[in-house]
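Dissemination and training. As part of the outreach component of the grant, students in the summer workshop were shown how a complex can be specified as a set of sequence lines and then modelled as a single object. The example used during the hands-on session is reproduced here so that future cohorts can follow it. Participants entered these lines:
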Amino acid sequence: MIPVKFDYLAPSSVEEALAALGEHGDDAKIIAGGQSLLPVLRMRLNAPEVLIDLGGIDSLRGVRDDGDALVIGAMTTHHDVRDDPLVKEHALLLSKAAAEVADAQIRHRGTFGGALAHADPAGDLGAPALALGARFVIAGPGGTRTVEAADFFVDLFETAIGEDEILTEVRVPKHTGWGAHYEKFVRVAHQWPIVAVAATVRGSIDEARIGLTNMGSTPLRATATEAALAGASATEDGVRDAAALAAEGTAPPTDLNGAADYRQHLARVLTGRAVLKAAGA
Amino acid sequence: MTATQDRPAAEIGRDRRRKEDQRLITGRTRWTDNITLPGMLHLAMVRSPFAHADITSIDVSEAEAAPNVVAVLTGKDFGEELGVCINAWPITPDQKTPTHSPMPADRVAFAGEVVAVVVARSAAEARDAAELVDVDYAERPAVLGIKNALEDSILAHPDLGTNKSALWVFDSAEAGTGGDVEAAIEQARTDGILIEREYRQQRLIPAFMEPRSVVVDPTGEQITMWTATQVPHIVRFALAATTGVPESKIRVIAPDVGGGFGGKLQTTPEEWITWAVARRLGKPAKYTETRSESLMAGHHGRDQVQTLTLAADRDGNVTGFKVHLDADLGAYVALVGGGVPVLGAFMFNAIYKFPSYRFECQTVLTNSTWTDAYRGAGRPEATYAVERMMDELAAEVGVDPLEIRERNWITHEEFPFTTVAGLEYDSGNYEAATARAREVFGYDALRAEQRERRERGDRVQLGIGVSTFTEMCGLAPSRVLGSLDYGAGGWEHASVRMTPLGKVEVVTGTSAHGQGHETAFSQIVADLLGVPFEDVEVLHGDTQVAPKGLDTYGSRSLVVGGEALVRAADKVVEKAKVLAAHLLEASADDLEYAGGRFTVRGTDQGLAIQELATATFAGHNYPDGMELSLDADATYDPVNFNYPHGTHLCAMEVDTETGAVRMRKYTCCDDIGVIINPLIVAGQVHGGLVQGIAQALWEEAVHDESGTLVSGSFVDYLLPTSADTISFDVVHTDQPSVCTTNTLGTKGVGEAGTIASTPAVVNAVVDAVRHLGVDDIQMPCTPERVWRAIHAHDGDAPTPEAAMPHFDEGAPNQDEGAGQ
Ligand SMILES: Cc1cc2nc3c(=O)[nH]c(=O)nc-3n(C[C@H](O)[C@H](O)[C@H](O)COP(=O)(O)OP(=O)(O)OC[C@H]3O[C@@H](n4cnc5c(N)ncnc54)[C@H](O)[C@@H]3O)c2cc1C
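and obtained this result:
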């Protein structure tokens, strides 16, 4: 478990980090919490020559209130996202999902930005970010651009972040007062989800937003379910038909934890449960 | 006659915290990988990515030129000096046993097999250079899965002409230990109950915490090997036998070893390669595997298909049990190899009075990781089969599963009892263990809740699983092993040495790797010799310190090694008595021995054993004819196995919508005879239970059809953590059934939890959904499998192509896709 030798850079600003990325190009890799990257390096599935550590850039850490949106720094850890009072108040779904990531050790190291940039379809934060309509702020040599959630997740482990770019922060529209629940289905506690459903609802139920984890090569929105839930009552009977639509248009993987059809079944069952819990029913 | 009978035991039975824990838990100790020797070189292995291929060429030039690389060696570079990996238990005279070179020169037979070794000045440089070794392979078709192997169309080793390695048979009619099982089956077919099932024991990975590591120092007069092994004595024996170096020139040390579970009961290619490299280069060499290598190339466990036929009369009295096993050896016949399933041969009749029994085991070779012992080795498989079948029988008869067991078990008045498999169970009390477990579990209340949930049609159903296990352990009477063609005996050795200042050094031939021997053995010796617990030092795991021994596996250390220790301590007392009589100027007959002190009957004159040790050291005053030493050795060959047993009860909740399962309650009442240290026993039981539960619910090693290990990391090979388990009720009977064949009355406990728990859990899961038409779910009972089983009949598990890969009609638990 020894990675290939690499150089290590620890810039203290985004500008420095971008300059280093520009200089080393393909040979460099950003390291945030290292909780996804280090296993990859240690198993020698990747061998960058330079690691650029964002850990020393203070401006990338923390959550701030920016009017209609919360701004979450890319280097904010899962632990801090979970416990942040602003997140709890305005984007409860993220707090709930962050609480379900891995275990306490990993939550103290792994970062919100790192998880989203890594774009593992089984990652727990993509679906909630998508459901909440998060916008991704990406810094590059030509300045900063903002990408909508729907355009950010491109494919398995692939996002809109370019090789010479850094995700600096994520802007999450406030969902103040919305109920939320992240229903994660696992076999053992420290596992990535087999399927998970991120649900946040206004009232019971005026409006709902549903994200699906591990139901395709990117996080997915269950739009048909969302539409059917508007005006539904927060009871088992009330949400049943809407939940039955949850797997529409999904293409989940088949692996040791379950075949695609089983995952689709789970998505429907878990959606119903997540919505009811989000609505406090 | 032992000293313990003369006075109250102070240490035995006490909850001593383990002496060894501080160093083991902090890691500030001598793990093999912590050992660094001057000038030591580091090894990295180049492993085949193919399951079956000819090695057409290996170009090492680039690797040799890499920084600080000292040598790159392939199978061709070594001759006989490399030795071979041995199979110590050919189960039949005509067993097909492929030659197992530690590093084959021509053909690889599983993915992960070593084809070259890089030697460098640092481990990182060795690893880097290993990637530069250019191996050309010509791929051959690989055979994977027991059913495919049995067809013999693709051969794991073409030169053997078949994949079938050996067929081992026991038949009670032939052995004269019981009736004819075929007659019982015929009878049941016309006028009774016949239950036929096929169960699968999935492949498991021992997954010990410390990866395997080996250091070889060839620079002394003796070549020294430190290795993370359970079996230093067997390693030394096999090195001498296969590399031509005399035993007297070999020292093997198992320093602190971080777990084994059978996975380090092996003589490994990596040990042999490191040995050969160090000798070739004349320098110390170290190899430590990565976790990925450990999962891929360390031996795996279990992997059997069990075809079972249980015959009974209409009341559920069993009349015969017929067992056919097909067992996957993997690519080679490992150290114990086919002996693992054969160890189960005597246990399928378990605690029951079956009148007839037949057991067949067909071992097969495949192009997969080799398999060998894993905690329980043979006995969990047997226990699973019989305890699952007893639940099926209860369902068929329509009685409670505890009731069906009671109809068939040996009652406590019937001991000693000779079983249909020919073993003599010396003691046991199944009624008492069951009564206690039942009470602590709250059996009747849980059954009532189960009924209530069924009636209500609750989404979450409750099931109760029973496992009334026994096992044979304390391996093993040497003559019995001989009769089974095992390549070694089963005795154990101990020495007790009194130091000049009255401390005690105990040497044992067992080789602890996390069990707590240092603590338990200290407690025993403290009682026997009346010395403080802290004054006893237990030495083990080094063939120079403990030259004789047969190491640790098969729940043998306390019951066999502990008995050797008792006998050695008794000899010390006998020797000391002679000196005491002399110094006290009394007749030996007038001396009383208690609490480590000899006193002259009727006086207050006496001497402690420590004082006698000092007097022996001085040698100033001792009787003529006395050898000036109190130290003593003993070798003990057990006269029988011993037979711990217990009743395990498990309640599982099943979410019928998702198939998710959740443990509600687990109670076990184990009768293991006299308990030396209840805390250590509780630890062994807890850990054992979790390992058995993990087989039922989580763990499965899966190779794909090309022979790649799909579950090659802990992301896919699911090990539970404390977050996944509940607090178990671990209790014992008030009056244990003491083992009658050792002085302390102890029975083994190291494997008990693992052996018992797997069927308890699966029985509970099946019981929860039996009313929905389910009578089996293949292990591990993943939510998907549970869900498919529940909905197999109602059309709710949709899409024909994806439906039922695990369960098709007629073969209720065959998984065509995975692992077969
Ligand atoms: C045992 C284990 C269990 C886990 N279980 C879960 C789980 O249940 N659910 C879950 O969601 N996750 C799980 N994870 C992953 C964890 O959440 C990681 O923390 C996360 O996926 C990556 O975050 P990181 O900060 O560690 O990123 P890193 O590992 O440092 O980086 C990941 C990738 O993102 C890139 N990157 C990181 N930050 C940026 C940035 N700001 N801009 C551009 N690129 C960037 C890196 O170059 C790298 O390619 C688990 C990890 C482990 C080790």
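DSSP finds twelve helices and 14 strands in chain A. Students were then asked to discuss how this feature might be tested experimentally.
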